[in-house]
Write a structure and sequence with these properties.
The protein is about 10% helix and about 30% strand. The protein has 2 helices and 8 strands.
């Protein structure tokens, strides 16, 4: 039988997975995620270095078990102070890959817990790029902080409060929109 041609290094042919398993490791350049998602600004982060990917495959019957790791360094912008910073990303994941023909389950059947971590393959070649991309995107923080104690920027003058306190609190009348009510005295009903 002729082995299908691999379109990418994140593809594995089913016949490559022996009884003892199969290991695949590769590096992707920092722009690979944006290129693969077909949008330059699809995610609000960059990558400071190559993305290192390691995958181990094991077969049990028609099910292929994939255990993977991803390691890189993210370039992010803090949501509080708007400063750029780097953050290491180290993720581990596991998937059960089932043949496409097993996707159609009767409606009354209860879905086992392991099915929630399942994906499907068809044919004799498994492309792991979509699953690896999914894991990378899932591990990018939604609200990145340069550090937990980040004080952010002043909402009035824009000063970075991590570097020095601003003078806005010292200036009377600019601390709060309610400061005009400071000297207000209600009229008495007679």
């Amino acid at each position: 039988m002729k082995r299908p041609r691999k379109p990418d290094e994140l593809c594995v042919a089913l016949d490559e997975i022996s009884g003892s398993g199969h290991h695949l490791s590769c590096r992707k350049h920092p722009g690979w995620v944006a290129e693969s998602l077909h949008e330059e600004k699809s995610i609000d982060c960059g990558f400071a270095e190559d993305i290192r990917i390691g995958l181990d495959f094991f077969k049990t019957g028609k099910t292929v078990i994939v255990r993977g790791t991803i390691a890189t360094t993210l370039q992010l912008r803090c949501v509080r102070c708007l400063e750029d910073f780097t953050l290491p990303l180290a993720a581990a994941f596991s998937y059960n890959l089932l043949p496409e023909e097993e996707r159609e389950l009767p409606q009354e059947m209860e879905i086992p817990r392991e099915e929630f971590e399942a994906s499907y393959y068809s044919g004799t070649l498994i492309d792991l790029a979509p699953l690896v991309l999914e894991q990378i995107v899932l591990h990018i923080p939604m609200h990145p902080l340069c550090r937990d104690s980040c004080r952010g920027i002043c909402q009035h003058c824009g000063a970075d409060l991590n570097r020095a306190p601003c003078r806005c609190a010292d200036d009377e009348g600019t601390v709060s929109p309610f400061s005009a009510l400071k000297n207000f005295t209600p009229k008495q009903k007679t």
